[in-house]
Structure formats: structure tokens, C-alpha cells
Design goal:
Length: about 575
């Protein structure tokens, strides 16, 4: 009987015992599971082995036995799963001997799992993706996760080649050093997880490593984007690009961006080769791009447009800003690692807004073409002492989705309009939005509200009127068609002087926004202003992707409520006193 047949006979006997066991919480049962794990792996029965490994994990995690073999078996199950291609198991097993407070993976696992980065890496390993684009704030684990993944893939496929790239030799040298450290340091368990993988050759000078055999196209090779790869490098396992753009100066120079992308396509991407995937089909070598999104025309932006990244199932985009939807930090890891929201708030106060948006919010922006900035808008800290002529608002409605329901609330004193508050939310239910908007309208005693008819605005106005009537709140609500003779962009630009608070003539209204120091706790207002600063007048695709509801609602207020002939006291016959305020 040959060795394989002997193992298969063992498996049959072990499976028979497995089916007969009644007490599945005992030490002998765990011993049985471990024996099954060993035998399944020896004959490559991956599906059965993974199932047993996960049962071992569940057993140990929930066990109260105190059996001295539990941790040993648990670690062995992670080793087995890693050898079968489980990236999470590899990360756990790799750092098993390190104190938890010094570990990279486990303190960050929960957050990285939540944001989908670990699953995305696993999908690359499983051959489900051609492109993975990752954008996260600095020092939030994206590059180190990438280096862990490269060491993992190199061990799984030592005969294939990984080509890693960055903006400079110093950066790619650091990638080489870190990968080599993971593979050779006693602090990590790389050689225990992959006992049949050894470093055959390496070059610190040229940043490459060969596993098991010498190769023309090395198992791992790292080159700067301008280092040249023709004839010496190939990517048949992973093409890895981490920060191809060196700095914001490069990102702001269209000619340099064009040259950078041409270099990428002609000397890096063209080194990829087709390879057979787990599904039996031939696919392109997968690419992982990790970068700060400096510009809409950076390599990631161009690749997303080229390969239809928003609709292509073989493209994954992981773009996580520093704040979550509630303004809390997205990167508060366990064991004191990561960054609280206060850290990012302090940076936001001192950092250039466009730079902060790119580095910490993952939103590429062009510095040119922004007509509304902190420097050229007008602000106020206190309202005038006298009563306003009227209090007005204009709603640009949106129900669900990424567009924002935007309602600036203005206190009118002659030609001067002070935006005292805003209602600004997206992805909100229509009933909830009516309740929240009405609360703000009543709070500020708004007597005139205009609503854009488009996208359900007419029906919304009728529902809101009924809501107000039930509360005995009298407000003049009018609906307005969006102009068809002008694009949204042109409509906004036609109100540029008014929005900036510039009096072109005696009939010009002037908009004043609340000073930042007076709205620190008003998250909706702060987001409203950020999106105004970010609005670009550039023509083309940017008009479809940017958040323009905020500035458009201000322009619509000027056109529909504050245009000549409507300036002065409110048209409502009901005074504030009669309304009971």
C-alpha cells in the first residue's frame, strides 16, 4: 500500500469515528479533529480540511476545558488554512509569537474587516479581481497590509513573479526590507507556516528575492516607477503599485501626471502576463494600487475610468475617509493604535483644505477651477441687532442615494442674507427628512420656503405643508422649476458675485456664511461648507461626480426667492406674533 492510500485509509477510519462521536466538547474530540486536519492536508483535500480547521477554531475559542493542546491545535489550523490560501489565517499565524500590543494585524483586524480591505485582498488571492484600488489616510495600515499580502502570495506561488513599484528607490527599498524581514525574522513564523519555502537568492542592491529556485524573473522584485523594468522584470503573480505619485507638486502638474501614467503603462503594466485562475480561465495578472488620491487624473482615476471601475465586477475600489458618517474616526484600532476623531479635526484646522481632502478624505481634487474658497467668500460672527425682514429657505430635495438634500436657511436684512443654518443630509428617508427639516424651519421661524420641483419636489412640498398645518405652523411654500436654459454649472456661476457677497449694483443681494468658529458643533453646516469649497467649475466628468447640491441650493435661493421684485418683507400675511412665536 503506497503512502497516499494509507492516508486515505486513515481518513476513512477517522471520518467513521467523527460520525460516531457524541461528546463534541471533549479533549479526545479535539485530538480527533487535529488528526483529521493533518491527514486531509497531506492528500490535499482542501474543502474538508478547511471545514475541520474552522471547527477547531470554534472549539478552542468557545472551550472551557483548559486542555493544554488547544492553542497548539488552533495555531496549526491557522497554518493549514494559510497554506490553502487563507490570507486572514496567514496574518494571525505569522505574528502568533509577538505580544498582542506589538502585533500589526489583530489590533487592526476588526476595522480592516469592516472596511472590506481583508476580503478584497482575499478576492485577489482567489483570482476574483483584476484590479484592487485602495485609498486610506496616512498610517492607517494600507501599505503594511499590502506587504503582508505580497509575502503571502510569494509563498503560495514561488514560481510566479511579483513586481512591486513606488515613486522612488528609497520607497521600494523599504518594501523589500519589510518583506525580507517578514520572511527571515525570528519574530515572525513565515518558515513555520511554509516549511517548504526557502530563500534561494536575494539582492539588497537591486531589491529582489527568489524563493526555492533561481529565476530570470524573480519571485519578488521592487522597482521605482522610473527605474526601468524592460527585460528584467515580469508580473505573473501580482503587480503592486504603492504611491506612484511622490508629492502634491506632481499631482498639480498635468504634464507630469501624463508622463507618469505613460511611464506606468509602457514600463510597468506592460510587464504583466496572463495566468490561469482557480476557475480554470485565463485572466490578467491582478494589480493592486495603493495611493493617496491626489487628482482625478492620477493613475487610479484613469484606470477606474478605463476599466469601468464602478460597474466591473472584477474591479474593487476601497476608499475609506478618516471620518465615518457620524463624524467619528474610521481608524480607532484596538490596543491604543489608530487615531481618534480629535486627531483628524486638529489636522483639518491646520492643513490646506484641498490637501486634507486628498490625504484624509480620499477625494481627489484639482486646485484650479474652484471659485468659492475660504478666502473669497464672506462670513459673519453675529447677526445684526434688529429683527430680520424675513427668514427664508430653499430646498434642493433628494431622497436616498448619494445626492444631498440641501436647504440653506437665510436671515434677510435688506439685500444682505445671513445663512444662519442648513439642513444637509444624504441617504435619508423621505418621512425622516420632513420631520428633521420641519424642526429646523420652526426653530428658525422660517416664513418663506422655496422647493425645486424636480425629483419629487412638488409631492414633497404638499406633504411638508400638511405636516406644518398639523402643527399649526404657517409657512409660505412655493415650488420652482429648475431652469432648462442653463446647465447647473452655468446657473451656479451666474450667481457667483452674490454667493461671494460682492455688491455689483444696488440691487445685488449679498450672501454671508456663518464663521467657522461659530459653527464648530454644527456637523451639517461644516459638511455643507466643505462641499462648497470643493465645488469645481471645470467642465466634463467632474460635473457628474462632485457634490454640488449645497452650492446649487444657494444659487436657487438667489434666483427663485431673492431675485429683483421679491426682496423685502415676507409675502405671508401672518406675523411672527400671530403665529405664537
Amino acid at each position: 500500500m503506497n503512502n497516499k492510500n494509507r492516508i486515505l485509509k486513515n481518513i476513512a477510519e477517522l471520518e467513521d469515528l467523527y460520525s460516531q462521536v457524541k461528546d463534541r466538547s471533549s479533549a479526545p474530540y479535539l485530538d480527533l479533529l487535529n488528526l483529521m486536519r493533518i491527514n486531509y492536508e497531506q492528500v490535499g483535500q482542501e474543502e474538508n480540511d478547511i471545514k475541520i480547521c474552522k471547527e477547531i477554531e470554534n472549539f478552542v475559542i468557545n472551550s472551557k476545558l483548559g486542555y493544554d493542546k488547544e492553542q497548539e491545535y488552533l495555531l496549526a489550523s491557522y497554518d493549514t488554512r494559510a497554506r490553502f490560501g487563507d490570507f486572514r489565517a496567514y496574518c494571525i499565524a505569522l505574528e502568533w509569537n509577538r505580544p498582542i500590543e506589538k502585533q500589526f494585524f489583530l489590533p487592526r483586524r476588526k476595522i480592516l474587516e469592516k472596511h472590506g480591505l481583508l476580503q478584497a485582498m482575499q478576492d485577489v488571492a482567489d483570482g476574483k479581481l483584476d484590479f484592487l484600488f485602495v485609498s486610506m489616510p496616512p498610517r492607517t495600515a494600507k501599505s503594511t497590509t499590502g506587504i503582508f499580502f505580497l509575502s503571502f502570495m510569494a509563498a503560495l506561488y514561488p514560481d510566479r513573479s511579483i513586481l512591486g513599484n513606488g515613486h522612488s528607490t528609497a520607497l521600494t527599498q523599504s518594501f523589500y526590507n519589510e518583506v525580507l524581514n517578514l520572511m527571515t525574522s525570528e519574530e515572525y513564523r513565515f518558515s513555520e507556516i511554509f516549511p517548504n519555502i526557502n530563500i534561494k537568492n536575494k539582492s539588497a542592491e537591486y531589491s529582489w528575492v527568489d524563493l526555492n529556485t533561481d529565476k530570470r524573473f524573480h519571485t519578488l522584485m521592487f522597482k521605482s516607477i522610473d527605474g526601468g523594468t524592460t527585460g528584467i522584470a515580469e508580473a505573473s503573480n501580482i503587480l503592486y503599485c504603492d504611491d506612484l505619485i511622490k508629492d502634491i507638486e506632481t499631482a498639480e502638474n498635468p504634464a507630469r501626471l501624463d508622463k507618469l501614467f505613460a511611464t506606468y503603462t509602457s514600463t510597468i503594466q506592460d510587464r504583466t502576463v496572463m495566468r490561469k485562475g482557480k476557475d480554470g480561465e485565463y485572466h490578467r495578472c491582478p494589480e493592486i494600487h495603493i495611493a493617496t488620491r491626489w487628482s482625478i487624473n492620477d493613475p487610479i482615476g484613469r484606470l477606474i475610468r478605463t476599466y469601468d471601475g464602478t460597474h466591473n465586477p472584477r474591479v474593487r475600489i476601497i476608499n475609506i475617509p478618516c471620518y465615518d458618517e457620524n463624524g467619528e474616526s474610521n481608524f480607532l484600532y484596538d490596543y491604543g493604535k489608530g487615531f481618534p476623531k480629535e486627531y483628524y479635526q486638529e489636522l483639518q484646522k491646520t492643513e490646506d483644505p484641498i490637501t486634507f481632502r486628498a490625504k484624509y478624505l480620499g477625494e481627489p481634487m484639482e486646485r484650479t477651477g474652484h471659485p468659492f474658497t475660504k478666502e473669497n467668500l464672506s462670513f459673519y460672527t453675529d447677526l445684526p441687532e434688529q429683527e430680520p425682514d424675513r427668514i427664508i429657505a430653499f430646498a434642493d430635495p433628494s431622497f436616498g442615494g448619494k445626492d444631498y438634500f440641501s436647504v440653506p436657511i437665510g436671515y434677510q436684512y435688506g439685500n444682505d442674507i445671513y445663512i444662519e443654518d442648513v439642513y444637509y443630509e444624504n441617504n435619508v428617508d423621505i418621512d425622516i427628512s420632513r420631520k428633521r427639516l420641519l424642526e429646523k424651519l420652526i426653530k428658525h421661524k422660517v416664513t418663506k420656503l422655496g422647493i425645486e420641483k424636480n425629483n419629487g419636489g412638488l409631492e414633497y412640498s404638499e406633504l411638508l405643508s400638511n405636516d406644518a398645518r398639523k402643527l399649526n405652523y404657517r409657512i409660505n411654500i412655493t415650488t420652482h422649476n429648475a431652469p432648462t436654459t442653463k446647465s447647473k454649472r452655468d446657473r451656479i456661476l451666474s450667481c457667483q458675485s452674490e454667493i461671494k457677497g460682492i455688491a455689483v449694483n444696488e440691487m445685488t443681494v449679498r450672501i454671508y456664511f456663518k464663521a467657522e468658529s461659530c459653527r464648530e458643533d454644527n456637523t451639517q453646516y461644516n459638511l455643507f461648507m466643505r462641499h462648497i469649497y470643493e465645488w469645481s467649475e471645470a467642465e466634463g466628468s467632474v460635473q457628474k461626480s462632485q457634490k454640488d447640491d449645497c452650492i446649487d441650493s444657494v444659487a436657487s435661493m438667489i434666483i427663485n426667492i431673492l431675485s429683483p421684485g421679491s426682496i423685502g418683507v415676507a409675502s405671508s400675511k401672518f406675523s411672527i406674533t400671530k403665529l405664537g412665536f
